[in-house]
Amino acid sequence: MARPRLTLYRDAALAEARGPSLQKGVSVLVAGRRIVAMRPTSDEGILPPEVRVIDAGGSTIVPGMVDAHSHVTLPGGSHWIDRGFDPPEELLDVAERNGDLLGRAGVRWARDVGSPAAVDPRDGKKRALALRVRERWSRDSTRPQIRVAGTWIAHSGVLQPGLDIEADDGPALLAAAKVQLDDGADLLKLYLDGPKKEEAPWSAEDVRAVVEFAHGRGAKVTAHSGFLAGARVGIDAGVDSLEHGFELDSEAVAAMARQGTFLVSTLAIFRSWASFSQTTTIPRFAGDEGKERMARRRERAIESVRLAYRAGVRIAAGTDFGGGSLRANHLAWEVESLVEAGLKPWEALASATIQGGELLDEPDAGRIFEGGPADFFLVHGDPLSDPTSLWRVWRVAWLPDSFIP
Ligand SMILES: [Zn+2]
After folding, report:
1. Centre of ligand 1 from the C-alpha of residue 98, in Å
2. pLDDT per position as a tens digit, 269-311
3. DSSP string spanning 323-392?
4. Per-residue confidence (pLDDT) for residue 153, from 0 to 100
5. How far is the CA of 323 from the centre of ligand 1 (A)?
């Protein structure tokens, strides 16, 4: 067998997201897909003659990021909901384009929390499209690694009919959960907003039964939570994480911290919508009433994340791209939003790296270490003090050279 190609990234800074300070003058030696040495540039040791040296001077090495809330089969944009009804073949193409965008933006892992179901021509069975994407990408080391929740499970009257699996009582909820896991979902996604926003769609007992069932099968349960009533039920029922958490209070975050429940933040949605007030004529974004309503929800959502942060809740960063209006290369926007909500910049980067890996139970995800995968990218600037440096991607170690913009 041929020896793996050796590449040395010389004299970079290193941002590990474990504290506020960069390590400077670092050289990283990569063999094939693994990091074999990380040393001070002044002490690289003896290098084999065939090593290819990349002068990384002035750039910063950042662990490949984890987008903890994504929808890989959907494109995003201001008509994001309509796009969910595009033909399955088109959505699979969208996923490939999203795979490109994720990689070029330094995102190595994506947690897919809902995709439309479609008939798989290979066996005639209807299942979540993202499961097919996971299968394709698992065979291609340049693609993002994904974990998939299957299709959204919601009460009727909440999402667009035809997009989700509807369950109006406990037995139906449990049956829907079983179908998703039988189809091969890595986790379950319950939609804990009800047809009425002040009421959760199911009881804590109903949700707890699903959590126990999923845990028994080695899968986790996460819950979409736009409003407080649903958040309370999810927390009571012991879900592993809440998505969005746009309306949390001090009692809710205290319970989350105690139980170890993750919050997956998606605050950049509001920045995206605010941008649509300038770029579209859609009344809910561009009209005065719409703008006011969005601004109110945004304030409340930022306050929820701030409360969670202060209470010590573990926070992972997500874009909601596709299922919301962001695009697949916008995770830096969420890191910026977390800083606005009170996280220190290095903590916000940890939410997009180490914390995302913990949420996924993937010990290598979002980390960089000798012996680990060469899953890092290089930016200009110090992301430990300035999240906007994450937009300035120069190179991505896991992509072929030709790929780099
Ligand atoms: Zn979503």
Report:
1. 15
2. 999 999 999 999 999 999 999 999 999 999 999 999 999 999 9
3. TBS--TT-HHHHHHHHHHTT--HHHHHHHTTHHHHHHHT-TTTT---TTSB--EEEESS-TTT-GGGGG-
4. 95
5. 5
Question: Ligand 1 center to residue 257 CA distance, Å?
Answer: 23
d(CA 325, ligand 1 centre) in Å:
10
134 CA to centre of ligand 1 in angstroms: 17
pLDDT computed for residue 4 by the predictor: 79
Total-model pTM: 0.97
Between the alpha carbon of residue 180 and those of residues 153, 199, 223, 352, the distances in Å are 9, 25, 15, 27
**Ligand 1 centroid from CA 8, angstroms:** 38
pLDDT, position 161: 83
pLDDT tens digits, residue range 78-106?
999 999 999 999 999 999 999 999 999 99
Distinct helix (H) and strand (E) counts, the chain: 13, 19
Q: What distance in angstroms lies between residue 102's CA and the mean position of ligand 1's atoms?
A: 16
- Ligand 1 centroid to residue 324 C-alpha, Å: 6
pLDDT band (50, 70, 90) for residue 402: very low
Q: Distance, CA 299 to ligand 1 centroid (Å)?
A: 19
pLDDT at 110: 98
Residue 41 near residue 26, CB atoms below 8 Å: yes
CA–centroid distance, 69 to ligand 1, in Å, is 6
Give the Å distance between the CA of 66 and the centre of ligand 1: 15
Average pLDDT, the chain: 96
Nearest-angstrom CA–CA distance, 172 and 184:
19
CA of 163 to the centre of ligand 1 (A): 13
What's the confidence (pLDDT) of residue 163? 85
How far is residue 368's CA from residue 35's CA, in Å, rounded to a whole number?
8
Scanning 53-201, the segments in alpha helix (DSSP H) are 80-83, 88-104, 129-138, 170-183
Residue 405 has pLDDT above 50, yes or no: no
Residue-wise burial string across 224-233, b where 16 or more C-beta atoms lie within 10 A, e elsewhere: bbbbbbbbbb
- 30 CA to centre of ligand 1 in angstroms: 35
Distance CA 119, CA 130 (A): 12
